[in-house]
Amino acid sequence: DLIESRPTRTPEALKNRILSVRMNMRSTLPKMNWTFRTVEWSPKLTTVHNQINATHFVLPDLPNLYSNSDKSKYLDLIPSQKRIQTISACNHNEKTLREAIAAGSIEAGGKIWLVGGNEKLNSNNSCCALSTTQAAHIIRNESDVEMWGVTNPNDEESIHSVHEKIESGISGFITQPLLASRALSILEAYPR
User: Fold this and answer.
1) Does 76 have pLDDT greater than 80?
2) Which residues, in sequence order, are CB contacts of 98 under 8 Å at separation 6+?
3) Side-chain half-sphere of 82: how many Cα atoms within 13 Å?
4) Fewest beta carbons within 10 Å, which of 90, 105, 111, 161?
Protein backbone atom coordinates (compact mmCIF):
# COMPACT_ATOMS: atom_id res chain seq x y z
CA ASP A 1 0.00 0.00 0.00
CA LEU A 2 2.74 2.43 0.89
CA ILE A 3 4.49 2.00 -2.44
CA GLU A 4 1.27 2.47 -4.38
CA SER A 5 0.39 5.68 -2.53
CA ARG A 6 3.65 7.44 -3.53
CA PRO A 7 3.52 9.65 -6.61
CA THR A 8 5.20 8.06 -9.54
CA ARG A 9 8.54 9.56 -10.60
CA THR A 10 8.65 9.39 -14.33
CA PRO A 11 11.90 10.32 -16.06
CA GLU A 12 10.17 13.47 -17.35
CA ALA A 13 9.09 14.49 -13.83
CA LEU A 14 12.62 13.98 -12.50
CA LYS A 15 14.08 16.01 -15.37
CA ASN A 16 11.66 18.89 -14.64
CA ARG A 17 12.53 18.76 -10.92
CA ILE A 18 16.28 18.93 -11.69
CA LEU A 19 15.76 21.87 -14.06
CA SER A 20 13.68 23.65 -11.41
CA VAL A 21 16.44 23.24 -8.80
CA ARG A 22 19.08 24.49 -11.25
CA MET A 23 17.01 27.56 -12.13
CA ASN A 24 16.47 28.35 -8.43
CA MET A 25 20.21 28.04 -7.80
CA ARG A 26 20.98 30.40 -10.70
CA SER A 27 18.65 33.07 -9.36
CA THR A 28 20.63 33.26 -6.08
CA LEU A 29 23.99 33.87 -7.76
CA PRO A 30 25.11 37.37 -8.73
CA LYS A 31 25.28 38.06 -12.45
CA MET A 32 28.87 38.05 -13.63
CA ASN A 33 30.31 39.51 -16.78
CA TRP A 34 32.83 37.04 -18.20
CA THR A 35 34.14 39.23 -21.00
CA PHE A 36 37.83 39.13 -20.10
CA ARG A 37 40.12 36.26 -20.97
CA THR A 38 43.35 37.17 -19.24
CA VAL A 39 46.64 35.33 -19.61
CA GLU A 40 49.74 35.81 -17.46
CA TRP A 41 52.66 36.84 -19.67
CA SER A 42 55.68 34.61 -19.86
CA PRO A 43 58.70 34.79 -22.19
CA LYS A 44 57.58 31.35 -23.42
CA LEU A 45 54.58 33.07 -25.03
CA THR A 46 56.80 35.19 -27.28
CA THR A 47 56.28 33.03 -30.35
CA VAL A 48 52.63 32.03 -29.78
CA HIS A 49 50.96 35.08 -28.19
CA ASN A 50 49.10 35.88 -31.46
CA GLN A 51 47.49 32.44 -31.40
CA ILE A 52 46.02 32.89 -27.91
CA ASN A 53 42.50 34.30 -27.83
CA ALA A 54 43.09 36.64 -24.88
CA THR A 55 41.70 40.09 -24.22
CA HIS A 56 44.61 40.95 -21.89
CA PHE A 57 48.10 39.78 -21.00
CA VAL A 58 49.27 40.41 -17.42
CA LEU A 59 52.95 41.18 -16.80
CA PRO A 60 53.81 39.86 -13.31
CA ASP A 61 55.90 41.92 -10.91
CA LEU A 62 58.47 39.22 -10.26
CA PRO A 63 61.90 40.82 -10.59
CA ASN A 64 63.68 37.58 -9.68
CA LEU A 65 62.02 35.74 -12.58
CA TYR A 66 61.53 38.34 -15.30
CA SER A 67 64.41 40.43 -16.62
CA ASN A 68 64.26 43.89 -18.18
CA SER A 69 64.68 42.10 -21.52
CA ASP A 70 61.53 40.05 -20.82
CA LYS A 71 59.62 43.23 -19.99
CA SER A 72 60.88 44.86 -23.22
CA LYS A 73 59.60 41.87 -25.23
CA TYR A 74 56.24 42.21 -23.52
CA LEU A 75 56.05 45.92 -24.37
CA ASP A 76 57.18 45.31 -27.97
CA LEU A 77 54.84 42.39 -28.70
CA ILE A 78 51.66 43.11 -26.79
CA PRO A 79 49.49 46.03 -27.98
CA SER A 80 48.96 48.66 -25.27
CA GLN A 81 45.19 48.02 -25.04
CA LYS A 82 45.92 44.38 -24.11
CA ARG A 83 48.52 45.10 -21.42
CA ILE A 84 47.97 44.86 -17.68
CA GLN A 85 51.03 45.38 -15.54
CA THR A 86 51.15 43.92 -12.04
CA ILE A 87 52.62 46.12 -9.35
CA SER A 88 53.41 44.34 -6.11
CA ALA A 89 53.31 47.02 -3.41
CA CYS A 90 55.58 45.02 -1.11
CA ASN A 91 58.37 45.21 -3.72
CA HIS A 92 58.41 49.00 -3.35
CA ASN A 93 58.94 51.72 -0.83
CA GLU A 94 57.76 55.27 -1.50
CA LYS A 95 61.04 56.26 -3.18
CA THR A 96 61.28 53.25 -5.54
CA LEU A 97 57.63 53.53 -6.57
CA ARG A 98 58.01 57.23 -7.40
CA GLU A 99 61.20 56.45 -9.34
CA ALA A 100 59.40 53.71 -11.31
CA ILE A 101 56.61 56.14 -12.24
CA ALA A 102 59.11 58.87 -13.23
CA ALA A 103 61.13 56.40 -15.33
CA GLY A 104 58.04 55.28 -17.22
CA SER A 105 58.10 51.76 -15.75
CA ILE A 106 54.41 52.22 -15.04
CA GLU A 107 52.91 52.89 -18.43
CA ALA A 108 51.03 56.20 -18.52
CA GLY A 109 47.37 55.74 -19.38
CA GLY A 110 47.70 51.98 -18.99
CA LYS A 111 46.14 49.42 -16.70
CA ILE A 112 47.74 48.03 -13.58
CA TRP A 113 46.80 45.29 -11.21
CA LEU A 114 47.95 46.47 -7.80
CA VAL A 115 48.58 43.66 -5.33
CA GLY A 116 49.88 43.84 -1.79
CA GLY A 117 52.04 40.77 -1.74
CA ASN A 118 53.43 40.06 1.67
CA GLU A 119 55.14 43.18 2.92
CA LYS A 120 55.93 41.52 6.26
CA LEU A 121 58.07 38.82 4.64
CA ASN A 122 59.79 40.90 1.96
CA SER A 123 63.39 41.09 3.14
CA ASN A 124 64.37 43.83 0.67
CA ASN A 125 61.86 46.42 1.91
CA SER A 126 60.58 44.95 5.17
CA CYS A 127 61.08 48.18 7.10
CA CYS A 128 59.30 50.40 4.60
CA ALA A 129 57.38 48.26 2.11
CA LEU A 130 54.17 49.86 0.88
CA SER A 131 50.69 48.53 1.44
CA THR A 132 48.27 48.37 -1.48
CA THR A 133 46.44 51.51 -0.39
CA GLN A 134 49.68 53.47 0.17
CA ALA A 135 50.88 52.51 -3.31
CA ALA A 136 47.50 53.38 -4.82
CA HIS A 137 47.59 56.88 -3.29
CA ILE A 138 51.05 57.51 -4.76
CA ILE A 139 50.13 56.13 -8.19
CA ARG A 140 46.84 58.07 -8.29
CA ASN A 141 48.62 61.33 -7.49
CA GLU A 142 51.49 60.83 -9.96
CA SER A 143 50.05 58.84 -12.87
CA ASP A 144 46.90 58.41 -14.92
CA VAL A 145 46.66 54.62 -14.92
CA GLU A 146 43.55 52.55 -14.31
CA MET A 147 44.12 50.61 -11.08
CA TRP A 148 42.61 47.26 -10.16
CA GLY A 149 43.08 45.42 -6.88
CA VAL A 150 42.41 42.08 -5.24
CA THR A 151 39.81 41.14 -2.66
CA ASN A 152 38.83 37.99 -0.80
CA PRO A 153 35.05 37.61 -0.30
CA ASN A 154 35.69 34.60 1.96
CA ASP A 155 36.93 37.04 4.64
CA GLU A 156 34.50 39.43 6.31
CA GLU A 157 37.35 41.92 6.91
CA SER A 158 37.57 42.38 3.14
CA ILE A 159 34.46 44.64 3.19
CA HIS A 160 36.42 47.32 5.05
CA SER A 161 39.47 46.70 2.86
CA VAL A 162 37.46 47.22 -0.34
CA HIS A 163 36.20 50.57 0.96
CA GLU A 164 39.78 51.66 1.74
CA LYS A 165 41.02 50.55 -1.68
CA ILE A 166 38.25 52.42 -3.49
CA GLU A 167 39.05 55.58 -1.49
CA SER A 168 42.71 55.23 -2.51
CA GLY A 169 41.80 55.15 -6.22
CA ILE A 170 41.33 51.49 -7.12
CA SER A 171 38.42 51.18 -9.54
CA GLY A 172 37.97 47.42 -10.01
CA PHE A 173 38.66 44.15 -8.27
CA ILE A 174 39.62 40.60 -9.04
CA THR A 175 38.28 38.26 -6.36
CA GLN A 176 39.48 35.06 -4.84
CA PRO A 177 37.17 32.09 -5.59
CA LEU A 178 33.99 32.01 -3.47
CA LEU A 179 34.80 29.14 -1.10
CA ALA A 180 33.18 30.00 2.24
CA SER A 181 29.44 29.65 2.81
CA ARG A 182 29.24 33.35 3.73
CA ALA A 183 31.25 34.51 0.68
CA LEU A 184 28.20 35.42 -1.40
CA SER A 185 26.74 37.65 1.33
CA ILE A 186 30.15 39.30 1.84
CA LEU A 187 30.43 39.89 -1.90
CA GLU A 188 26.96 41.46 -1.93
CA ALA A 189 28.05 43.80 0.92
CA TYR A 190 30.81 45.31 -1.20
CA PRO A 191 30.10 48.85 -2.40
CA ARG A 192 28.71 49.15 -5.91
Assistant:
1) yes
2) 138, 142
3) 19
4) 105
